[in-house]
Amino acid sequence: MIERRTLLRAAGATAMAPLLARPALAQSATGQGAALKIGMITTLSGPGGYLGQDIRDAFALAMEMEDGRLGGTPVRLLVEDDALKPGQGKQIAERFLKNEKIRLMTGVVFSNVLGAVAPDVLDSDGIYVSPNASPSTFAGRECHRNFWSVAWQNDSLHESAGQAAMNLGFKRMFILAPNYQAGKDAITGFKRFYKGQIAGEVYTRLDQTDYAAEMAQIRAAQPDAVYQFHPGGLGIAFLKQYVQAGLSATTPMVLASPSMDSTTLAAVGEAALGINVTAQWNSDFDNPASRRFVEAFTAKYNRTPTYYAQQGYDTALAIGAALKGTGGSVEDLAAFRKAMQPASFESPRGRFAFGANQHPVQDWFLLKVERGADGKPALVTKGKVLENHTDAYAGQCRM
Amino acid sequence: MVLLLEQLLNGLQLGVMLFLLAAGLTLVFGIMGVINLAHGSLYMVGAFAAAWVAAQTGSALLAVPAGLAAAALAGMAVELLVLRRLYARDHLDQVLATFGLILFFNQGAILLFGRQPLFVDIPEGLRGAVEIIPGVPYPAYRLAILAVGLLVAAGLYGLIRHTRTGMLVRAGATHREMVRALGVDVRKLYTLVFGLGALLAGLAGLMAGPIFSVQVGMGEQILIMTFVVVVIGGIGSVRGALAGALLVGLVDTLLRAYLPALLRGAMQGPDADALAAGLASMGVYLLMALVLLLRPRGLFPAHA
């Protein structure tokens, strides 16, 4: 009896394993003593670790391209791993605020961590610039004058996918997402722009690895196409099993960018050919800013930058533009806001502006996985899906 | 009807996958009295080693022994270096030590392979689909997993029932002290059993590579379900592990497949889907609670 109880307790402990803290990383890019400190709280460990890694690396790259400065101001980047644990993110934020006296923070990848970090930063008159997570909380009624998103508002990812499904002429869609907040938001966002028929709506588990049951349901429903939101490893498993079930030959797929980035693509391989993806940027964009970024990133890190890398890079550029306007000071918040709002930097995305709620107003593009010049599957830009797209919550924001 | 058959196959296939992991875990716990939280890490070692060798050589035939050997060797090394010092200690110490091993293995995998998930392809001959039921193509690879799992189950039965080593294993599971008193080299037996458990975990890992995602932390995801299987089947019983694994696989798959449709008959569409998803994910744990209520020592208790 005792043995079984211990075993059950042990099972509980295992559930915590991926969340356990890893040693903190602090990295200083410049040696100057008077450099402005920027705090980066991001996810570097666990299955979602490569997202934070790309954001960190691209941010550091932007600093390096300007010799350790952003907008002419010497800066020092302090990086800590939140391990996808809201409590840990909050502790790091408090330490950054109280011990390091940092006023400017960025880095959070996941919305649940942001929910714990951002209020602390904003309440103590700090500035938070988001390179990824941007839940509806900070975009609508609760928007904050010191909160900026350089990525997108979460819903836009799925709204653009919904619009893409309309444009591609799919009449009956089968949609799937994990049963948690971001999964439900994905379904809501998709349906906001998709006006066709829903052939089936399935919520999967966040810890699920086997999707055979779902594959059988999709085959039975015979939809025109499938939309699914499964970030990271979940998406890799889903896609592989989709192909193995023989569904990719009959049923096309539409995805939002988090379910198909260049890292996922490398892990899925040939199986991804033909999949439609919507994103705000892609590594094949033909503009000088994008070419410069992709070249520098590939040269330094020897891998193709993901969307996350591009977002981290833009975050550094946006902060640089604001610092240039204030002469390197973050003390006068009104002056910082005034310098930040025009977004006077050259984004690899092309057109980029901040809306009234300080979230991006930007274009969304349709990408398709095709065989690249080297024979390997690559994401190829096909055209625009949405133009000057703002988010559904901007109207509720009163600054 | 055809759909039900397909879902039953899916459930069985998930079941044998869980069985490969649970068999090792239950043996180690039953015979050595050690809770090995790092069992999932051995599964990860098997998957990574096979994926790496397959990528380097392009040969699935070489990847299989590589994955098996890596997992078995890692397992035996863990037993010799760490667990051997812990047999006499409290369960809490063992849990702490093997929990530490999880962190060690995960960080090691990050250092060696990076955070990006690895790509694994299905071996050439198993790529297509087979029409076992008319009109429903079923992936050949999944059938192969099912076959391998059942073969291993039969092999384990033969090993444990009809060989001298198996006799010692059985004796060790029921009367540990007596086996020691009869002069059997228990230390060697322990290393062997642990290596066998690790080998099976590695087999599960290398077979999971082409369908799941090969990445750091993949072991912990599936280990929770494995613990449920071990508790349902009865700790220390391989027969129980097989029964528990198939039961858990079937219940989990069928609930996910049919609960939403059942609930949709009774309530609004989106609400039914969300509620069904919640209930389906609780299903195996409810099953475990039920089994514990009716048969507190599991379905096939080893220490009868």
From TrEMBL, chain A:
Cited InterPro entries: BCAA_transport, Leu-bd, Peripla_BP_I, TAT_signal
Domain of life from the UniProt record: Bacteria
PROSITE patterns the UniProt entry points to: TAT (PS51318)
Biological process annotations from GO: amino acid transport
Keywords assigned by UniProt, alphabetized: Amino-acid transport, Signal, Transport
SUPFAM superfamilies recorded: Periplasmic binding protein-like I (SSF53822)
Recorded family membership: Belongs to the leucine-binding protein family.
Protein name: ABC transporter substrate-binding protein
Organism name: Teichococcus aestuarii
Automatic annotation (TrEMBL), chain B:
GO cellular component: plasma membrane
Identification of the protein by name: Branched-chain amino acid ABC transporter permease
Segments traversing the membrane: 12-30, 37-55, 61-83, 95-114, 140-160, 189-212, 218-235, 242-263, 275-294
A biological-process GO annotation: amino acid transport
Entry similarity comment: Belongs to the binding-protein-dependent transport system permease family. LivHM subfamily.
Keyword Signal found: no
Molecular function in Gene Ontology: transmembrane transporter activity
Topology versus the membrane: Multi-pass membrane protein
Predominant localisation class: membrane
Entry keyword set: Amino-acid transport, Cell membrane, Membrane, Transmembrane, Transmembrane helix, Transport
The species this protein was found in: Teichococcus aestuarii
Record localization: Cell membrane
